[in-house]
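Researcher: Let's continue the batch. This sequence belongs to F-box domain-containing protein, and it's 435 residues. Same format as the previous ones, please.
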Amino acid sequence: MSVCCLLDRPSPDSSMSPSVEELRARIVDLDSEIDLQKKLLKKLEKDRSLAQRHLNAVLDPMSRLPPEISSEIFLQSLPASPSGMQGALTALLKVCSAWTDIALATPVLWTTVHIDFPCDDALAEVLPIWFGRARHRPLTIFISLRGRCFNWNHRVSDVLWRHGGQVKHLEIFDDDDFATRDEDDQTIDLFGENTPVSLPLLETLMIRCQHQHRNYLAPQILELVRRAPNIVESTFNMATVNAFNDGDPKMVEVPTLRRVMFEDIGHDDILQYLSLPALETLSVPLSTIMDGDFLAFLERSGASLRDLTLGSSFRDMDSLDLYEYLRSVPKLTKFTMWLPGSDVVTELFAAFADYSLLPSLDDLTIYLNHEGNLHISDSSWRTLVRVLSSRGMEQLYITPILVSLPMDVLDSLRELTIDGANIWIGTEERNFVGA
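Model: Same format as before. Here are the structure tokens for F-box domain-containing protein:
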């Protein structure tokens, strides 16, 4: 019975009131008709949505592309900055159901995650969904920390450590612009009450802190490296605290780690307990390293070293220390020095007269300390020419040299360039050898 029929029933005689049974029966009939109309409306809405999708498919060229092409377009459209990727992906999901289906069916879209501390605890519930969309693909994780140390959210980081089996690249960036110099707020606790279970895929680890008063615990850094059996490269720019609860830790040997860069002070606590037999590239400022500790590290880890960069604080270095460092890296092919004084450079030229020292070296770069006395004697330059002629070095770069070299030295160096050597001695703007 239709609604119209029910409404068209003649009104009962005003003198006769409908019975209770009649009113209940009428309500039942109306309820049934309402349910029927709701189902019909739902079907019509579904049919309309389907027709709209078909219309969109006709009008939208993206919908006519093969899914793999659309996926590649999505990938190419993502912003270069990790911090913008989440917003871009969320926007893709809101365009239409077709784009949502394509995005969710493309796991590689979800393999880069940016975590920005401080953040709400709700992110701990969202991260597993995001990781699930990556479908066990290797993850790249960027963590940014702003403000006080307690802005590090352990509920969120615990989720990350539990999914450590997927993490291939991990970068932690501590922003100096928002940091604080509060003495009670200096040390970052990466783990809280939980330590990473395993990081089997981790290949690169980078921890950068722009705040000179911020500290990271050396034992936790060692623990991250120890739990990453396939780590290849690590970069540290931070201060560390030698805070071991149970005495000094055991030596950590990492047979896969090939490239290690320290970009700032405070890393000596880590070097004391690392053994890196496969190390090929090392960059270390000498600001806080104890000579004996660094020499011991090189003796453990320098056998395979090919590329060594030493920076700053050469002023107090004994020439014997530098000589012993270089004796510990017999396979070195590239050596870079940052901010040595002229005296250190002079001693280095003299040391190269021992041809058993760095016999494979073919690339030498020296950025002199321009705040000191930059004078290098003519005899030292002539010593360098003899070394270069005998060693067959391919690359030499020394700057800043403000005064031209003796003419006989320049003539000899130019002859070497004719034979194929690449030599630059002068300022960034002027090469005396090429003049």
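Researcher: Any comment?
Model: The longest strand covers residues 167-175.
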